[in-house]
Amino acid sequence: MTTHAIQRLTALLPPGRIMSAPAQLSAYESDGLTAFSARPLAVAAPETQDEVIAIVRFCHKEKLPFVARGSGTSLSGGSLPVKEGIVITMNRLNRIVRIDPAGRTAVVESGVVNSHVTAAVQKYGLHFAPDPSSQPICTIGGNVAFNAGGAHCLKYGMTSNHVLGLKAVLATGEVVELGGPSREQVGPDWTGLFVGNEGLFGIALEVTLQLLPRAEMFHTVLAGYDSLEKAGDAVSAVIASALLPGAIEIMDALALEAAVAAVHAEYPPNSAAVLIVELEGPREVVAVDRVRLEKILAGSGAVEVRVAKDAAERLAIWKGRKSAFSAVGRLSPDFIVQDGVVPRRKLGEALRRIGEMARESRLRCANVFHAGDGNLHPLIMYNGKEPDGLARAEALAGKILRMCIAMGGTITGEHGVGVEKRDYMPELFTADEMDCLKRVRAAFDPLGIANPGKMFPAGEPGVMTTAQQGLHPLEKAGVITRE
Fold first, then answer.
1. 340 and 406: one domain?
2. 89-93, 184-188, 247-251, 438-442: segment of lowest average pLDDT
3. Whole-number Å distance between alpha carbons of 49 and 159
4. Total domains, the chain
5. How much is the pTM?
6. How far apart, in whole angstroms, are the C-alpha atoms of residue 270 and residue 429?
7. How many beta carbons lie within 10 A of that of residue 436, not counting itself?
8. Of 7-21, 101-115, 238-252, which one has max mean pLDDT?
9. CA-closest candidate to residue 59, choices 145, 170, 162
10. Which structural domain range is residue 136 located in?
11. What is the CATH number of the domain that holds 168?
């Protein structure tokens, strides 16, 4: 990108909102996956939707790669910048546009922080269900791009289950409005297609969220076990009983050690694993379900069972769980968080094999995961200063992903493919399926300038010519028209 082009980009925004000094760019070189880094040419900080649209249209005209970024909490390198491109930081688009308590919806800009949505609507007895561990800092735009989940996705589903509509600027500079304030829509589910696109289609500007009534009552139980296998078997027993808890989480001994050190979490001492089960809903329903849960846990071989007596104890339990990722930094200078998924019935086998592979690799691996839906989060610890430290950690991460595929699972539950898992896509999908994915991406971004280098294996273009892709699918549907 020439100096002249930078000057023309600078003219799109008020002074000071295009950053290109090395000290300014350094904060954007990595996201939550710090093993990868790249320095962009510049960072643009728009404050309005029109400014974002103008920047994207400039990028399309100049064939300039861009990466949209919220708070940079991606754990797959999903918001890693491109050396020859720019970063568009969306944090300043942080308005809650409107709240409709009767319709249980909220319209928010993409830079709004996840937890701020619930804070704004709780006076109406409502909440926004997706609750990733980065909830206090991650943004709705990032949640949409990567279809974020969280501890309570077992009962409530992923972000895609809570997005009714959105306004977005595609990589071509075209502005589209998908979905609406209701689930009663006619035609293809364009909103569902957009959610989880990992920034390869364009940038969400405004999102219509479905809100849910806040549960009348919570019943949070912490059970300690002398083996991971027993904790896994307890999960199977809970699911088999037809109970549907709001959340079922497991943390192993290393993860517990980290959480205790970081936030002084009080978990059953000397446990090889702890199980967190949370029931929520109407008081009468929880009263019945807690009796069933108590019987299941009593027969599960737990060495200790604790019930949160009040909201403070409940929050303390969850604080330890949600701080587990960052807390592992107390045990290791560097770590990789994996995100594979296996069928629930194979949880025990998967955990055993992860332990075996970690020992063979001479690496420590802490396990924290959404047990209810088989979403594993092994935290692979390594020392980046060792010549082969990162390589050994990545090799172990790859073995875990291949194990997930072999077991009938997948390579990501909620963190996305990004750069970390892109080379495993052909092992998960057939050549025809990969071709289909590329065609869909090319329909929205024929130049391949939106978040390039993500999802598709290294060295593959992931784009097609206009002749190859044909008419834009949204144009066929009448959602957009070309001038």
1. yes
2. 184-188
3. 22
4. 3
5. 0.91
6. 42
7. 12
8. 101-115
9. 170
10. 96-213
11. 3.30.465.10
